[in-house]
Amino acid sequence: MTSRRYLKVATAVFSEMIRWSLWFFSILLVIHLIRIFWLNGGPSPIEGFFTFSQYSTSIFMLVLGIMSAYTFMGRHIQQGVSRRDSFFGISLAAIGLSLFLTVVPLVINGIQHLLAKVSVFPVALDTAVAFETTAGMVAAAIALFMNVLTYYLAGWLISIGYYRFRWIAGFGFIALTFIVFGLNDYLWKPGNYTLDWLPYEPLEADFWLTALGSAAMILVLFLAMRILTKRAPIKM
Amino acid sequence: MAASVQLNDVTLKFKKFEALKDVSLTLEAGKIHGLIGRNGAGKTSLLSLIAAFREPTSGGIFVDGSPVFENPEKMEQVAFVYDKDYKEETEKAKKLIALASHYRPHFDMDYAEQLIKRFKLPVNKPVNKLSKGMQSAMNVVMGLASRAPLTIFDEAYLGMDAPAREIFYKEILKDQEEHPRTFILSTHLVSEMDYLFDHVVIIDQGQLVLNEPYETLEARGASVTGAASDVEAFTADMKHLNEQQLGGTKSVMVYGELDESKRREAQTLGLEIGPVSLQDLFIYLTEEAN
């Protein structure tokens, strides 16, 4: 019982976020299909669902993260869950959701790839391109997983900043997340490099080094969240 | 299952403002405790500490002898029902009640269903669309059905109409009989709720003003009723808390214990001695403290 409390939190949070995700993917898929069938803009091939959804998925995770402190933490403590169990539960749910958000676009992309072979679509789909810095589906999946998890953590960071320290300090937390995004771009999207205080050295040469850097950043973000939520007073 | 509460020299400060000043208090397990105080007296601050919503600036808070803050076993035993802002809550009432049952180990869904019927709570409506009274009823359903060993209702009746409040009070007494636990009921509707209390705590400006069993409160004062002139003469050197007169009959609420000789004197004068009302005592004690 004692060790199961965070699992209770994780299942409740995960099922809630999955519900939102299904809405999100349904809408996104409809938009994608509209683009394929009606707004394909001529003969040049358009991107497959995996590439199409990446940016939106990251933003979706950012929004979920921003909702986290306000939606979940107060609710958990009021239901007699400790901050520790709340943190581990939300973290597990976020990891689970990131996996889900990685697998679903890949599966849809795969289906599109198969359907494209039998010429279902009026326009060519570039389903092979998965992720610019990577090679192969596994690498693409790992990259997307780490990206969406980072975006979730960035949102969670903003949300705890506002939750604990009010709006002026909240802006400080937004600035902090820009650094997180900058580092994330530095690691994963050398082409879209936005930080000018770090020397520009594209890391695409070594995927695993990039993944390691990204994992380290995720770990630091998790640690920061634990520290920031550990003794947080609950808003009433 | 019932849990006890102990506060040792608890102080809570918000910057320079002291919400609670050196409060020490023991609340026995299995009793219904009334926490009474004026607006801003520190009731909610005190209760939020017991529910581990925040840490005190100094002092210790214990549930069944163990510190409650970040103690999963103890936090699980405490249900804190308060006037929550549901403006942004778009979930249905049914969903929030289901969530409570997911987290609360002693939650009784059958009992929750019964209460939902009694309060006529529209569980399929989004919570922010419910009336204030219905939101309070939903809170009460979650609090009662949680069967948490320590259940705290902080002015949980807000917005409820009189019949709904009556259901709430009756359910507390009924469920306390069948499933004994510790209740803390904070209120300023003293005259309406005083019959529920086994023990009374009054706080004012963050300080403890009174902390005693309901029965011994009688010794704190009395009501003296009879012919106006006799009552006036009898209570002339006593502290009057409240007076009411109807024709030639007068009733005076006095502060301080009436000893045996005084009681006998009242009897010979044909005066009726009754218990002091908690409401009058509360008003007097908090005015005195100010």
Q: Could you provide a short overview of the structure?
A:
The complex is a heterodimer of chains A (236) and B (290). By secondary structure, chain A is mainly α.
Structure commentary:
The complex is a heterodimer of chains A (236) and B (290). With 236 residues, chain A is mainly α. Chain A is 73% helix and 2% strand. Chain A has helices at 5-37, 49-78, 83-117, 137-188, 207-229; strands at 46-47, 125-126. Chain A is elongated. The model of chain A is unreliable at 130-134 and 193-200 (pLDDT under 50). By secondary structure, chain B is of the alpha/beta class. Chain B is built from ten helices and 14 strands. Chain B has a six-stranded mixed sheet, with helices on both faces. In chain B, strands 2-1-4-5 form a four-stranded antiparallel sheet, with helices on one face. In chain B, strands 12-13-11-14 form a four-stranded antiparallel sheet, sandwiched between helices. In chain B, strand 9 (199-204) and strand 10 (207-213) form a beta hairpin. Chain B is globular, with a radius of gyration of 21 Å. The A-B interface holds A 1-2, 5, 8, 12, 75-85, 230-231, 233-234, 236 and B 44, 48, 51-55, 70-73, 75-80, 82, 84, 99-100, 102-105, 148.
